[in-house]
Design goal:
By secondary structure, the chain is of the alpha/beta class. It has helices at about 15-25, 35-45, 85-95, 100-110, 140-150, 160-170; strands at about 5-10, 30-35, 55-60, 75-85, 115-120, 125-130, 130-135, 155. It is built from 6 helices and 8 strands; from the N terminus they run βαβαββααβββαβα.
């Protein structure tokens, strides 16, 4: 395990957010990075980022100075969980136009380990929305992008919560 803090990015996805929140909050030396949509999602799920015990970075600019610190070793790695289909698609295409996609790119350039837990991992899924359980059917393109992301160098893809916990423990704890 490298030195430095662990970066944890949350995108505009609510899939398993409460469990992910609890996992993230239990890790020492973690800094949270929020997309603009993530802030909305956290409010919908009644999770107050102001109660998080670590430092929180908000998406005020895609070229925030903190992004480059993923390439310089300040962070021992990056977890992006949960990851929306929009963020997965941008990462697969190399688009770095917001805080999350930029730190993803910089972590890759710095060869920091990256763990991603996308929302779209199976053709049919159950997920807890703010109003209750719903069945979702990810599109073919979203599943293809998840597979493309899994094939990227330096990216470890978690397809369920057990894989996410295992990857985080193995790489960062």
């Amino acid at each position: 395990m490298g030195k430095g803090k662990l970066g944890w990015a949350i995108t505009g996805a609510g899939h398993e957010i409460q469990t992910i929140w609890d996992l993230m909050a239990g890790i020492p030396d973690v800094e949270v990075f929020l997309s603009r949509a993530a802030e909305d999602v956290l409010r919908m799920y009644k999770l107050d980022i102001n109660t998080f015990p670590g430092k929180v970075h908000r998406d005020s600019s895609p070229c925030a100075p903190v992004c480059g610190q993923f390439a310089t070793g300040r962070y021992r790695g990056l977890v992006v969980a949960p990851t929306s289909s929009n963020t997965v698609a941008k990462c697969v295409l190399g688009i770095s136009d917001n805080l999350i996609t930029n730190i993803f790119a910089q972590a890759g350039k710095g060869r920091a380990p990256i763990v991603v837990y996308p929302t779209d991992t199976a053709p049919e899924m159950d997920t807890l929305s703010p109003t209750g359980w719903v069945k979702v059917y990810p599109r073919k393109i979203d599943l293809e992008n998840t597979d493309r992301l899994a094939a990227m160098e330096g990216v470890r893809l978690a397809r369920n919560l057990d894989q996410l916990r295992s990857a985080v423990k193995e790489l960062f704890l």
